[in-house]
Give the backbone structure.
Amino acid sequence: MVLLEKATNEKDLRQCGVLTKNLKKLRKQFNLSDALLVLKHYCPDLYNRLKLSAQPTALSNDVKIEEHLHCSQARAEAIVKLPETSLLIYILVQMKLIDDGDFSNVS
């Protein structure tokens, strides 16, 4: 997310292209609960509106979501204001929903 934010602010289309090409690799590494954790941290309003049967990755009591994702809530709000970063989150969650066969929440 931080790399995409930096590439967007610097208008570095080459870096945006590299990040887009790595989306397939990211898709394989993430599972749905990881994607939902990212959605819950970066877009809590959208997460609360969705009726998802899956739950985000459970974190131990001593680890906060900010520490796990290495991003404070204030920083996450600044990052998600860029349309490119919001789009990446939406695409990632939608791909994982399709992969898991949850077509009721895809649209």
Observations:
- The mean pLDDT is 81.
